[in-house]
Write a structure and sequence with these properties.
The chain is of the alpha/beta class. It has helices spanning 68-77, 161-167, 250-257, 282-292, 314-325, and strands at residues 34-36, 53-54, 99-104, 107-112, 115-119, 126-127, 130-131, 148-150, 173-176, 190-194, 199-202, 205-210, 213-214, 229-234, 237-241, 262-266, 296-300, 341-342. The protein has a single domain, classed as Ribonuclease Z/Hydroxyacylglutathione hydrolase-like (Metallo-beta-lactamase, Chain A, 4-Layer Sandwich).
């Protein structure tokens, strides 16, 4: 049988309906928070007070004589993580008491009666090629309800977006100027950007950004971002989180402005591969503590990430040795990750 060109067979038409299916691997986007910017020009301070000093990016002469990759990075990959997650054991606080829990590196939980705030929270196991060498002191899930979050600057060891996304629960966050666009899409209610010596009040808490000697770029092209430390005032108590910094004479100015009860001071990462002076060594940190006139010092920024050539356990040993020589050992509180301490 030959088929004719005009012959055709009719097939019944079927209706196909398509329904959208959620992609289980797609991250749920959270609404962007309002960024409340300061009216001050970037990098300035108020009332004519000193501003921060920015560290340059040029390596120190002779930095290439050592090999950070073979001496530090590769060996650390094969070294097991130490430490353990502590069970949450937050004490009941009386009026005027402050509880501080060191999470690790520069991460702290600060508690007053009725308020919980986190500073530089970082639960990351890796910072790109840098392995976390010690577990955080607490599981993220064991934190109490967080009322406020502070981030001192945009460096990856202080601003970890994954951790912040897990912490964000429609509460405010305070950051230095031009850092807000790194955190506004993570689930916070409001982002407050501060310039040096500016204050943001959140209920009974007063937060002030202080200058330091560091730099704020997250990558090479965003050197416009701010950086600093925070003064936290609650009632009659004052806590100072130094952020990252090399030693500079601005500590005296901070101490003249505030009667500091506890100073959280960085003592590690002072022998970086670039050779630049970007962090204080233990002796400089103690000198800064004296300049501040603070009552008690809590060392931080050591023992968690191998960012520098010095051994992980060297900074606290050097600090306590020097403090003993200076007659200041009794004013140093070396904390254990995950163990609260009441001040």
């Amino acid at each position: 049988m030959r088929w004719q060109a005009h012959e055709s067979f009719a097939c019944p038409r079927r209706a196909y309906y398509y329904f959208p299916v959620d992609n289980p691997f797609q991250r749920i986007r959270k609404p962007k928070a309002e960024i409340k910017k300061s009216s001050k020009p970037n990098g300035t301070s108020v009332h004519g007070a000193p501003a921060a000093r920015k560290v340059g990016l040029k390596p120190k002469a002779g930095w290439q004589k050592r090999n950070f990759v073979t001496e530090v990075l590769i060996p650390s990959i094969f070294e097991p993580r130490s430490g353990e997650h502590a069970a949450p054991n937050f004490p009941e606080l009386k009026d005027g008491e402050v509880c501080i829990t060191w999470i690790g590196h520069a991460s702290f939980l600060i508690q007053t009666r009725g308020r919980n705030l986190l500073i530089d929270p970082n639960w990351a196991k890796w910072l790109k090629v840098f392995k976390r060498m010690k577990h955080p002191g607490l599981h993220l899930r064991d934190l109490p309800n967080i009322d406020l979050v502070l981030v001192t600057h945009a460096h990856f060891d202080h601003l970890d977006r994954k951790t912040l996304r897990g912490v964000a629960d429609d509460q405010p966050i305070i950051v230095p100027f031009e850092v807000g666009n790194l955190v506004h899409d993570l689930g916070f209610h409001t982002v407050h950007e501060l310039h040096y010596w500016e204050t943001c009040e959140q209920g009974p808490l007063k937060i002030t950004l202080t200058p330091c000697h560091h730099w704020g770029a997250r990558v090479l092209h965003d050197t416009h971002r701010g950086f600093g430390g925070f003064i936290i005032e609650t009632g009659t108590r004052t806590i100072f989180h130094c952020g990252d910094t090399a030693y500079f004479d601005g500590f005296r100015e901070i101490g003249e402005r505030y009667d500091i009860d506890v100073a959280l001071m960085p003592i590690g990462a002072y022998d970086p591969p670039s050779g630049r002076e970007v962090h204080m060594n233990p002796e400089e940190a103690l000198r800064a503590f004296v300049d501040l006139g603070a009552n008690r010092m809590v060392p931080m920024h050591y023992g968690t990430f191998r960012l520098s050539y010095e051994p992980l356990d060297e900074p606290p040993e050097r600090l306590l040795t020097f403090a003993r020589e200076q007659g200041l050992e009794e004013r140093i509180s070396v904390m254990t990750e995950g163990c609260p301490m009441v001040f």
